[in-house]
Amino acid sequence: GDVFTYDPGFTSTASCTSTITYIDGDKGELLYRGYPIEQLAEKSHYLEVCYLLLYGELPTAAQLEDFEHRVTNHTMVHEQMHNFFRGFRRDAHPMATMVGVVGAMSAFYHDSTDISDPWQREVAAIRMIAKLPTIAAMAYKYSVGQPFVYPKNSLDYAGNFLHMCFSVPAEEYIVNPILSKAMDRIFTLHADHEQNASTSTVRLAGSSGANPFACIAAGIACLWGPAHGGANQACLEMLREIGTVDRIPEYIARAKDKDDPFRLMGFGHRVYKNFDPRAKVMKESADEVLELLGIEDNETLKVAKELERIALEDEYFVSKKLYPNVDFYSGIILDAMGFPTAMFTPIFALSRTVGWISQWKEMMFDPELKIGRPRQLYTGAPARGYIEVEDR
Ligand code: CMC
């Protein structure tokens, strides 16, 4: 028969060509369309980065204004969607709600997602970038039993998200510019990361010609796991469980013990064998935000820094090239903003949506697009005859 390359976990298989994101794992380098993530995090902002990822170039002032206008035009979700949310248990995890609601968008926008039409793909992309914050905020509001808050287009993208999460009819949330800037930076740092598990899922789903909202729902489902986007929730819960600096050695010992399934959450990466550049920016951001909020005495941040310091000196972590990843410090910032841990992964999902949809678009324009169809090495029983039930 045919001969296949066996590559579990796809550690050495390139599944596509792409012009969007570049990672050099040994150097700890991450570029979006050629621009270093550090520069984008410092000088740009999320919607500009969305434009860059989608169209390949930084926008002119006029292009940016037009793009922002197109996005804000689509921030509301159909009113009927409210009923869809209400079908979930009131204490449903917001990721569960998001998988369902984003998938259901395919039923609302089937009219405008004829994916053979480039213009319709464009509309789908804009809708997704515009609506994901609204959907994530609604999932949050539903989970805490508060009324949904409509988007407010006079606010910027991050400020609007904070508003939809934290305003209540009794009191409007006054958006703190420090927090909206920090929120925007978190979105930017998560915007794309080449062929990670969830992006590969979106591409695989899209390769069959599936509706783009359904493809993004598949990406959200994949992101949820603790080895991927779910690590940010798991990481803060771990830091809280450790609680105090004196308990760190116990957890380091557990992470090294091969008989213990425990891993240091927010540590290690398939591609980075050096510092995750996003973690560096996130750490600086955590310091900045906590200081500006006057809570630099935060015990969780102390535990995180000391854990990082000890791990980076430990032979086990050094020899395996395990460094903090993007999820290590993000939770500390989100916690300081007032988000419960269950919202950390939904925030990752809404930030990554632009990466997913940019990659989906890139794939749909590829004249050589083929349905993704890996093969396997069969290790089961050889061909054999059926045995009647009374003879078994
Ligand atoms: N704590 C302790 N040991 C670890 C860790 C960790 N966090 N990560 C990897 N190792 C060990 C692992 O046990 C293995 O040891 P050995 O070779 O002796 O069996 C070795 O390092 C290589 O690990 P691997 O699982 O083969 O590596 P991978 O590339 O398949 O996995 C990973 C990468 C990110 C899933 C893994 O490092 C991990 O589980 N980390 C914790 C979860 C996490 O923080 N995920 C977020 C990833 S970054 C952003 C995102 O995708 O959301």
Automatic annotation (TrEMBL):
Domain of life: Bacteria
Gene Ontology cellular-component terms listed: cytoplasm
Alphabetized GO MF terms: citrate synthase activity
Keywords of this entry: Transferase, Tricarboxylic acid cycle
Reaction catalyzed: oxaloacetate + acetyl-CoA + H2O = citrate + CoA + H(+)
This protein's pathway: Carbohydrate metabolism; tricarboxylic acid cycle; isocitrate from oxaloacetate: step 1/2
Active-site annotation: H269, D327
Keyword Transferase: yes
UniProt keyword Transmembrane helix, yes or no: no
Alphabetized CDD domains for the sequence: EcCS_like
Pfam family, one: Citrate_synt
GO biological process: tricarboxylic acid cycle
Similarity comment: Belongs to the citrate synthase family.
UniProt-recorded name of the protein: Citrate synthase
Source species: Roseicitreum antarcticum
